[in-house]
Structures are given as C-alpha cells and as structure tokens.
C-alpha cells in the first residue's frame, strides 16, 4: 500500500516516527535540516517529544541539527516537569479520596502514564480523567474545591457525563498548581 503525503514535512515526520519505532531507514538528513522548525512543530503538536527521544537511536539523535535537538530536549524537559506536577496533584487527590472512602476509576492518559509508559512525561496530557460514583459526586466535588481546584463553568466543558452508576468529571476543575 502506498502512502500519499500532503507535503515534505509530513513525509519526513512519518519517516522519523517509523524509523524510531519500527526500524525503517532514517530520513535524509538534508531534508531534516531544511524542515527542522516545521518538524519540531509537528512532533510537539502530537505530544511525541519525550517518547521519540526515549526510543530514538543514539546515532539518529546525534545526526539531528543542533537547533532541532535543543528544541526537542527543551520540550521534553518541560513535559517531564508538567508530568511531575500532574502526578503530584493526582497522588494528593488519590490519598484524599481513599481517606474519604470515595471510589474513583482512573482512565485515559493518567492511567496509561502510570501503567504503560516507563519514563515520566512520555504520555503527555492536560488533565486527569476519572469516573466517580454518582453517590460520591457531591463529596468529591467539595473535596476538589477544598484542595484549591477551581470549578469551571459548564460552558467551559460538560459538567458531568453520567451513566447512572458513575459520573465523569469532564474539564471541570483547574489544578491549584501553577502552570506556565
């Protein structure tokens, strides 16, 4: 099957990812140099910087233009710091939930970050998704407010998604930790 690309950047990006994870040949270094800013934007946009750097062969990392390499390393460091903040927030809330006997089910990004990825920051995410028992919703809501989380209006995101058994907090709260 032949893959058609919209432009050179898309093809080079695809070749870099396939080379890193599948072992196909590394793209032409002159092409990487010619499109390094757009490549960084694409890698960052897809949240692949920490994972790409973790799996990238040392020879391929060394072959990257210094400017691109510096941007990728800086981006990865920011993701690790952000991941640490998110995990600190999550662990604090998880302890509080457990102490208050509030059962939650963790899913999506944070669940994957804890169970699948080996290095902090490899699973970029912007929030922590969890299901809360409908009977515990009011207590959970108050606990988040008591811990400094800020309630966002329903216009900013759905208030809840309820299946009758569990309620999902969906873009409801902003963490008290400062974010850049």
| Structural Rg | 20 Å
- Tell me the strand percentage band: 5-15%
Label the structural class.
Answer: alpha+beta
Largest sheet entry: 4 strands, antiparallel
The helix/strand series, from N terminus to C terminus, equals HHHHHHEHEHEEEE
The total of beta strands comes to 6
Which stretches are poorly predicted, pLDDT < 50 over at least 5 residues? 156-174
What is the topology, as strand order, of the major beta sheet?
1-2-5-4
Helix content: 40-55%
Helix/strand layout:
Elements: H1 8-22, H2 29-34, H3 36-45, H4 49-55, H5 58-63, H6 66-99, E1 104-107, H7 109-115, E2 129-133, H8 137-146, E3 150-151, E4 160-162, E5 166-169, E6 173-174
Antiparallel strand pairs: 1-2, 2-5, 3-6, 4-5
Helix pairs in contact: 1-3, 3-6
Can you describe what's shown?
The chain is α+β, with helices and mostly antiparallel strands and 180 residues long. Helices cover 53% and strands 11% of the residues. The protein has helices at residues 8-22, 29-34, 36-45, 49-55, 58-63, 66-99, 109-115, 137-146; strands at residues 104-107, 129-133, 150-151, 160-162, 166-169, 173-174. The chain has a four-stranded antiparallel β-sheet. The longest helix is centred in the middle third of the chain and has 34 residues, at 66-99. The protein is elongated, with a radius of gyration of 20 Å. It starts with 7 loop residues before the first helix and ends in a 6-residue tail after the last strand.
């Amino acid at each position: 099957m032949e893959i058609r690309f919209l432009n050179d950047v898309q093809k080079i990006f695809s070749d870099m990812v396939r080379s890193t994870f599948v072992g196909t040949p590394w793209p032409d270094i002159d092409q990487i140099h010619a499109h390094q800013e757009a490549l960084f934007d694409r890698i960052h946009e897809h949240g692949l910087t920490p994972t790409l750097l973790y799996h990238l062969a040392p020879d391929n990392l060394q072959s990257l233009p210094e400017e691109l390499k510096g941007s990728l390393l800086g981006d990865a460091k920011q993701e690790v710091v952000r991941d640490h903040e998110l995990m600190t927030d999550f662990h604090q809330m998880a302890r509080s939930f457990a102490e208050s006997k509030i059962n939650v089910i963790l899913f999506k990004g944070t669940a994957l970050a804890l169970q699948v990825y080996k290095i902090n920051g490899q699973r970029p995410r912007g929030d922590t998704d969890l299901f809360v028992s409908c009977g515990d919703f009011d207590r959970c809501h108050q606990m988040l407010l008591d811990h400094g989380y800020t309630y966002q209006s329903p216009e900013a995101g759905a208030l809840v998604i309820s299946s009758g058994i569990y309620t999902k907090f969906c873009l409801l709260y902003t963490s008290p930790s400062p974010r850049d």
